[in-house]
């Protein structure tokens, strides 16, 4: 069998109009930065969820263990703060800063 045509150099195109010419060092730097950012985002989300669980636990403990009205109010506030932190960590609320 013969080759059906000459080998062509194939360039990757982004939207059909502009060709992308990236060398290996730029690609490595871009991928490394993206993976680092993703890992830090996961770590931050897990840390915020840990704080949220801590606030919910402390609030529930105050709510059920303290017979006073002030303790109950502090417990409800702690539970609410914990749920707010969890919702912000899961991006269900708009970000606090920006």
Structural commentary:
With 98 residues, the chain is mainly alpha-helical. The protein has a domain at 45-98. 64% of the residues lie in helices and 0% in strands. It has two helices and no strands. It has helices spanning 24-65, 69-89. α1 (24-65) packs antiparallel against α2 (69-89). It is elongated, with a radius of gyration of 26 Å. It starts with 23 loop residues before the first helix and ends in a 9-residue tail after the last helix. Residues 1-21 are annotated as: Disordered. The chain crosses the membrane at residues 38-58, 70-90.
Ordered list of secondary-structure elements with their pairings:
Blueprint: H1 24-65, H2 69-89
Helix pairs in contact: 1-2
Low-confidence stretches: none
Straight-line distance between termini: 63 Å
Supply the helix-strand structural class. mainly alpha
Average pLDDT works out at 84
State the share of residues found in helices, binned by percent. 55-70%
Number of strands: 0
- Percent strand equals under 5%
Give Rg in angstroms: 26 Å
- Biggest sheet details: none
| H/E element sequence | HH
Shape: elongated
Q: How many helical elements?
A: 2
Keywords: Membrane, Transmembrane, Transmembrane helix
Please give a quick description of this structure.
By secondary structure, this protein is an all-alpha fold. It contains 2 helices and no strands.
Features:
single chain; 98 residues; mainly alpha; 2 helices; transmembrane; transmembrane helix
């Amino acid at each position: 069998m013969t080759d059906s045509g000459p080998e062509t150099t194939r360039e990757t195109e982004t939207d059909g109009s502009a060709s992308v010419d990236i060398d290996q060092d730029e690609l490595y730097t871009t991928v490394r930065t993206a993976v680092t950012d993703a890992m830090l985002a996961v770590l931050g989300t897990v840390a915020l969820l840990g704080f949220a669980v801590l606030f919910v636990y402390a609030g529930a403990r105050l709510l059920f263990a303290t017979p006073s009205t002030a303790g109950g109010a502090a417990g409800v506030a702690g539970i609410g703060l914990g749920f707010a932190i969890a919702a912000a960590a899961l991006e269900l609320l708009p970000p606090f800063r920006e």
